[in-house]
Amino acid sequence: MGENPVSAELIVQEAGPSLTVQDRGRTGYLAMGLSRGGAADTLALAEGAALLRQSPDLAVIEMAGMGGRFEATEDIRIALTGAPMRASIDGAPLRWNASHLLPRGAELKIGAVTRGAYGYLHLGGGVDLPERLAARATQMTAGLGEPLDAGTRLPVGEDPRDDTGWLLPVDDRCAGGRLRVVPSLQTELFPKDQLDRFENVEFSRDARANRMGVKVTQDGPGFAVDGGLSVLSEVILPGDIQVTGDGAPFILMAECQTTGGYPRIGTVIPADLPRVAQAPQGAPLRFSFVTLDEAVAAQRAYLKHCAALGKRLQPLVRDPADIPDLLSYQLIGGVTAGRDLDTEKERP
Amino acid sequence: MTEVTYPILRTAGIDGMLVTFGGALSEPANRAALAFRAAVDGEGWDGVEETSTSLVSTFLRFDPLHLGHSDLQSRLRELLQSQEWTQADLPEGRRFFRIPTVYGTDMAPQLDEAAEVAGLSRAEAIRTLSESRVRALAIGFAPGQPYLGELPEAWDIPRQQNLTPTVPKGALVVAIRQLVLFSVTTPTGWRHVGQTAFRLFRPDSDTPFVLRPGDEVQFVETPPEQMANMEKDPDGGAEWERIP
């Protein structure tokens, strides 16, 4: 921490199947075929930065579905954001969306998500790996980095602060919901009745979902443009909703390719992409077209929200109202203490 | 359907603007997209954050909170009217690469199938592919990965119905009178007809992305026993020269 000259490392003692280092990704390489990548839930980056009162550009650990077991070589500050997971330090349960002190040598254990898809572990000073192409984000589709293995030692950046014990109240974004969509390149090629249905039916997040894209399904007939499925290959952006051969919409995410030849029925606005990323399998999702002006206003509001997160912090106090909550956490922690490890052993 | 008059402007997402010079791939439309991108970069407009090209379009990513959609559109229309973009010169500093390529064998198992779909003998297929000097029309999909064209008309063959689950880095695949040289290991609907040892994406080098739009390439036939040697070199035995 601030006065400590020794640079800390975070040791990954056990790793869930998909722990990756992420940040805000790489911009400026679209012309060369490299998409932005970066954290699937960018709001979580802003929340972690607010909790640790540091820059949202610092790199974090993204945990898809399952966390791991960690130990720091010095006292460090941590924050936990995104999809809530069962977490403890030396057996004492931790609040999610909060900052904590991780004492040197203590065991930080993060289990499975309790809702949502991607949890985030933020470190005071950030994950200080060398940059590649001006970022630290793992982008496996481009061959930039690999998931973290057990035994990895991650350098922790210098941390000028030492305050922990903050809680950030957040609105739930792990249950799907209504997604605002602007028209995309081929929206007008879809027949009117299909566009109406696209806005009126409830979709469900399919099992097929990863950092590249999220498929959504519904019970009715599939979607298709009049002229067939093949359109001239054109630039793709995160949020674009492609309709592929089986007629199901596929929402492209942070690590999507940069061009594609499937027609796009619309584009989810950036402010709603964290809810797509965090929608668990089976979560209900709906699409509503908004105008570009409405979408730009929503983006302005989203950025304002991110910038003002620091003002929402509350001290993490154990007042009497919290006690039943704490007890229930401990109970859940006790019941499942062994099971998390068994689940990790079962993975391929 | 009503006739579309190109170029057209379309928005993409909340922060993208696409200027498209044709409804199908053509050499003039591709040339216009490249030249127009260079012109937009030359303007240096505040609020434009990044530009790129696809086969027939110029793309701009901008900050819509500081540069309004209608403001950007009117600037683009004015720039579009300043010259006939389909007759613009190709970018400067273009290069010509000769990349050694093993056609067919178990390294590129779909050569025979692709030749049959194109109505060519195996020898004709290799000859037409290896003698064609193709241009990088766009870089995209994966880092540093070129779409190259156009091949002779016989090669106007469709993509496969089903995806090949995986082709390796350096694979040369063909469909719709174009070649793609893969920069990463990936599934594809295009047919795998050649294999090179050329590395398109070198993230830790001074030139992470090797090919640029406008560069030209010939995939020169090489015997399979050369592959082991080629793999020792990130250039895969390729040579290049500047195009005057």
TrEMBL record, chain B:
Residues 7-211 form the Carboxyltransferase domain. Gene3D superfamilies: 3.30.1360.40, Cyclophilin-like (2.40.100.10). Keywords: ATP-binding, Hydrolase, Nucleotide-binding. Coiled coil: none annotated. Residues 230-244 have a biased composition (Basic and acidic residues). GO terms for molecular function: ATP binding; hydrolase activity. Residues 224-244 are annotated as: Disordered. InterPro entries: CT_C_D, Cyclophilin-like_dom_sf, PxpB. This is Allophanate hydrolase subunit 1. It comes from Thalassococcus profundi.
